[in-house]
Design brief:
Length: 153
Amino acid sequence: MQSSPTCEFVPYLSITDAAKAVAFYSRVFRVDPHLLLNMPDGRVMHCEFRIGSARFFVSEELPGHGGTPSPARLGGTTVAIHLYVNDCDAMVKTMIDNDSTVLMAPVDMFWGERFARVRDPFGHEWGISTKLCELTPDEIQTAATKLFSEMSE
């Protein structure tokens, strides 16, 4: 088997009114942008957030320049961003306090995490997790099989 190339996945969020999104993410994640480049008209050309060892990018939706459409333009999103935090419930509350919508309230899941789903005010969906315990793939499969069996009864 070949070794995997060294790489890093970085979500790039296209947003209508990205300046408001930059303020939102700064409040919610309690971090200032690492890099913020504005266009001459003041719209966000590129913003980089760094949180721990993770990072993500934000920019204004630019449909006239071949940019990726925002969830507002699509009427939804096709991607969810999964975020690991020390306290799932606290992060969900912070997001709610900043005009996000809970899609699934925090709950302990069979794979050993406390998990919730939230949609931010710009239409991006976030899976928020806190690791409760480390399970092996076999333990997770056994728990999933049990859950699916109970669901079909």
